[in-house]
Amino acid sequence: MFAAGLIPALMLATGLSIAVSITARRRGYPPERDRRPTLAEAGHAFRGGSWALLFPVILLVGLRSGVFTPSEIGAAAVVYALFVGVAIYRRLTGRSFIEALEVSLGDIGAVIFLVALSAIFGYGIVLERIPELVSSAMLGLTDNLYAVMALIATFTILAGFVVDATVLIIMLTPIFLPLIRSLGGDPVHFGIVFIIAATIGNFTPPIGAAMYTVCSILKVKVGAYTRESLPLLLSVFLVTLLLVFLPGVVLFLPKLMFR
Fold first, then answer.
1. Which among 160, 108, 151 is positioned nearest to 241, based on CA atoms?
2. pLDDT means over runs of 10, the chain (259 residues)
3. In this predicted structure, what is the pLDDT of residue 135?
4. Phi then psi dihedrals of residue 240, to 5 deg
5. Can you tell me the distance from the alpha carbon of 142 to that of 140, in angstroms, rounded to the nearest whole number?
6. Is residue 130 a contact partner of residue 158, using CB atoms and an 8 Å limit?
7. If phi over 0 gives left and psi between -120 and 50 gives alpha, with beta otherwise, what is residue 66?
8. 167, 169, 176, 162: which is closest to 132 by C-alpha?
9. 190, 146 in Cβ contact below 8 A?
């Protein structure tokens, strides 16, 4: 799954870059620089950001070698940030550390509150057997694998508006995965599409955890955030649907690395 997500991640990055470029051109945003950076300037910027760029390498090596579990990597990121802030950049003081803790506690509290409420809603959905009804309705419409996956992705994105992504993954995977397998689909391909579709809900109102975090950090209202994020959300949605019909793109690296 991790290897399968690399190419889709690049596709998502490309799609988001295109959305940003089109938006900037239509609104006439001036460029940050009037010329391209020189090689020396690029090297200086690279050296300045080397400690930040090093962390993804540590993350990948740690996960791949088994040093960290996926749940431990967040704690490792905090320790790494503390080390860089105190020992390397020497900008993290006791006061700024306390301020960071206060902001983090506020953001975490809001996210946990949203997860708790969406979990209650998710419990009601399971109690009413809505996922099973949706699954049966999909098979009633078509038994084409790609059409069913597209319907699942669309349903998951819509469900993400009112249910947290973590709850969706726990709740829907045991229902949709057997359905995809029965139609001859690859579970890794389905997993990547499903995870991306579920994660979109983190950035959409009314309960998007990442949305509230961004709004809190940037001090903007949810309405303004939503309006400005529509081109980006559309880009992610289109890439997700594209991945539904391109299983070879998703499975290329896993087949190459683990055959």
1. 151
2. 89 94 90 84 86 84 81 83 84 81 78 72 71 75 86 86 79 83 89 91 80 82 88 91 90 84
3. 73
4. -60, -45
5. 6
6. no
7. left
8. 176
9. no
Cα–Cα distance between 221 and 115 in angstroms, integer? Answer: 20
3-state secondary structure 8-77: HHHHHHHHHHHHHHHHHHHHCCCCCCCCCCCHHHHHHHHHHCHHHHHHHHHHHHHHHHCCCCCCCHHHHH
Cα–Cα distance for residue pair 101/115, rounded to 1 Å: 21
Residue-level pLDDT at 214: 83
Evaluate the CA torsion angle 182, 244, 170, 254 in order and state its sign. Answer: positive
Please return the burial class of 46, using the count of CB atoms within 10 Å of its CB with bins 0-12, 13-18 and 19+: exposed
Read off the DSSP letter of residue 3: G
Q: What is the DSSP string of 129-188?
A: THHHHHHHHHHHH---HHHHHHHHHHHHHHHTTTS-HHHHHHHHHHHHHHHHHHTT--HH
Q: Determine the Cα–Cα distance for residues 11 and 56; give it in Å rounded to an integer.
A: 18
Helical packing angle, 187-200 and 165-182, nearest 10°: 150
Residues 6 or more apart from 169 whose CB is under 8 A from it?
A: 194, 195, 198
Largest CA distance in the chain: 62
Q: Output the pTM of the full model.
A: 0.73
90: left (phi over 0), alpha (psi -120 to 50) or beta: left
Token digits of residue 241: 């649907």
